[in-house]
Amino acid sequence: MPDKRPYYVTTAIAYPNGAPHIGHVYEAIATDAIARFHALDGRDVRFLTGTDEHGLKMAQTAAREGVKPFDWATKNAARFKEMDELYEISFDRFIRTTDKDHYAASQELWRRMKAAGDIYLGKYEGWYSVRDEAYFDESETVLGEDGTRKAPSGAPVEWVVEESYFFRLTDYQDRLLKLYADNPGFIGPDARRNEVLAFVKRGLQDLSISRTTFDWGVPVPDDPKHVMYVWVDALTNYITGAGFPDEGSELWRYWPADLHVIGKDIIRFHTVFWPAFLMSAGVELPKRVFAHGFLYNRGEKMSKSVGNVVDPFALADGYGVDAVRYFLLREVPFGQDGSYSHDAIVGRLNSDLANDLGNLAQRSLSMIARNCEGRAPRPGPFSEADAAMLASVDGLLAKARKAFEDLALHVALSSIWAVVAEANRYFAGQEPWALKKTDPERMATVLYVTAETVRQVAILAQPFMPTSSSKLLDLLAIPTEARDFAALADGGRLTPGVAFPAPQPVFPRFVEPAA
Ligand code: ME8
Question: Which residue ranges does the UniProt annotation give for the motif 'HIGH' region (predicted)?
Answer without folding.
Answer: 14-24
